[in-house]
Amino acid sequence: MRTIRVETSAATILLTEAPEPKLRDRQSGERATDAVSGEPLMTLGVVYIEEGESSLIKVTVAEGGVSEGLTLGAPVALPGLIARPWESVFNGQQRHGIAFRAAAVTPAAFPAAMGDAA
Length: 118
Hints:
118 residues; mainly beta; globular
């Protein structure tokens, strides 16, 4: 399926759930890995705020792209953020959604308020 680049320069992104290992199989505990590099994957939760609207989203990042110093509630940057629509059939029911993936997650600063120039 097609991937869509997400422009984040005008958004405020806050960490709401700390990175944790992404599981391929919840019953066995098998970790999910990147299909190309084989690197283990992590998931994290963020609130994405832009133009007065917010969305809670889960983002997948390769383990090596998770920076040190991440703090819950603090702003983060998600370089290379993409969205990928998906569909599947589970127990005879059609399911669909959007999966988000970023190259990394790093600490960021709160954007300066508009009109704060002295």
